[in-house]
């Protein structure tokens, strides 16, 4: 089904339907109510790829059919990509596929398109024996969002690959489910917390099941009002039935090797898969920072579910910058970078040398001030500073005075 309207120009929404109308200088095509024709069409040879009309200035102007736009040459028409994430124009609930002049909606595996051509709904595989396969005749099919699971009927236990009842005085302790192999992205979004064991605490099947179910409940409660932080589509909230849950215990997964004993405490690391068909882009795992926030804000409820105290909530991967690999690789300089580096180092050395020379010159100038010697004792020369008398001048004066003194004697 074509999900886009087929009006050539304007589409007017109506209850349960829609109507088409035309822009200025156009009128409805009498042969097709969806199309428009120019009230003042151009003569042949106009060069427009789709439609040419004459406006108020009586000049030939080009326009395009529905879901096309003019190129920069003002004549050629190009298809509008309604599925472009930067310019979302589609109404698809899950997958959008662009086609020339329109687009169509598709669904992920386990879903089917509704009659409206936009939204996807879950397929109940359990209603069709060809759509599910359970290994034991006493297993029943249980539908899940986008998939299904097989469970033993009431009072039966899955032991050694078969569903059977317990014999008299026989006890059965279900084993912890084997963790699925996580993808790299699922491991990166995992969160870890610690439990201090007391009174013989053991993370067994019941505690594992209780934790996952309660984790799904609090995650649903949080994400129901924080769709963006949970990387979910906002439109989903308006259409979701209040009886359905965003998250179930089947979407909560422990990492392989957990729970693990470490330094006297039990470490639990897990991640939460996003509900199929509801997450934004390729964010198929609940973001780790959001998951850590949910655990912290609902800690008391989760502690009640497992019967132990939770502490040390932290993300396993500390990096906040998205990278394509766990280890960042430094960028190697190009072949010309070393030349600029050498020039920069050389200029820096020259500048440092000039600064040192200037500093040394200033220090020498301060330690050896130039003082103008005073050659006489006249008052006008002493006003500018300390007047110095030449040693040779005093000595000559003394020599000249000595003979006269002797004659007086």
TrEMBL record:
CC annotations in GO: membrane
Membrane protein topology class: Single-pass type I membrane protein
Location, primary (coarse class): membrane
One Pfam family of this chain: EGF_CA
Keywords per UniProt: Disulfide bond, EGF-like domain, Lectin, Membrane, Repeat, Signal, Transmembrane, Transmembrane helix
InterPro entries associated with the record: C-type_lectin_domain (IPR051505), EGF (IPR000742), EGF-like_Ca-bd_dom (IPR001881), EGF_Ca-bd_CS (IPR018097), Growth_fac_rcpt_cys_sf (IPR009030), NOTCH1_EGF-like (IPR049883)
Transmembrane segments: 340-363
Record carries keyword Ribosomal protein: no
Ranges for domain EGF-like: 105-120
Cellular compartments annotated: Membrane
Protein name per Swiss-Prot or TrEMBL: EGF-like domain-containing protein
């Amino acid at each position: 089904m074509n999900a886009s309207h087929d009006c050539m120009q304007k589409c007017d929404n109506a209850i349960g339907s829609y109507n088409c109308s035309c822009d200025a200088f156009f009128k409805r095509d009498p042969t097709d109510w969806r199309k428009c024709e120019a009230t003042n069409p151009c003569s042949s040879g106009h060069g427009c790829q789709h439609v040419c009309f004459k406006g108020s200035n009586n000049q030939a102007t080009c326009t395009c059919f529905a879901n096309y736009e003019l190129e920069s040459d003002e004549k050629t028409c190009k298809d509008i990509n309604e599925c472009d994430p930067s310019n979302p124009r589609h109404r698809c609930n899950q997958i959008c596929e662009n086609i020339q002049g329109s687009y169509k909606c598709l669904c992920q595996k386990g879903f089917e398109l509704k009659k409206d051509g936009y939204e996807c709904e879950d397929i109940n595989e359990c209603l069709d024996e060809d759509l599910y396969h359970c290994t034991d005749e006493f297993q029943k099919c249980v539908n899940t969002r986008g998939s299904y699971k097989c469970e033993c009927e009431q009072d039966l236990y899955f032991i050694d690959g078969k569903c059977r009842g317990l014999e008299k005085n026989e006890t059965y302790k279900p084993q912890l489910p084997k963790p699925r192999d996580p993808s790299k992205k699922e491991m990166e979004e995992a969160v870890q917390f610690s439990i201090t064991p007391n009174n013989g605490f053991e993370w067994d099947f019941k505690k594992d099941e209780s934790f996952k179910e309660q984790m799904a409940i609090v995650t649903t409660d949080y994400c129901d009002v924080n769709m963006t932080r949970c990387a979910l589509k906002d439109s989903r909230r308006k259409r979701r039935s209040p009886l359905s849950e965003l998250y179930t215990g089947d979407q909560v997964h422990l990492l392989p090797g957990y729970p693990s004993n470490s330094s006297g405490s039990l470490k639990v690391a897990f991640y939460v898969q996003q509900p199929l068909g509801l997450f934004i882009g390729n964010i198929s795992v609940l973001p780790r920072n959001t998951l850590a926030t949910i655990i912290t804000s609902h800690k008391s409820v989760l502690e009640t579910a497992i019967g132990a105290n939770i502490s040390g909530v932290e993300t396993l991967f500390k990096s906040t910058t998205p990278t394509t690999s766990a280890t960042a690789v430094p960028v190697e300089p190009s072949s010309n970078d070393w030349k600029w580096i050498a020039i920069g180092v050389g200029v820096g050395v020259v500048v440092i040398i000039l600064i040192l020379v200037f500093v040394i010159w200033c220090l020498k100038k301060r330690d050896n001030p130039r003082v103008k010697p005073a050659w006489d004792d006249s008052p006008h020369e002493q006003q500018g500073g300390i007047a110095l008398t030449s040693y040779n001048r005093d000595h000559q004066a003394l020599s000249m005075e000595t003979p006269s003194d002797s004659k007086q004697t």
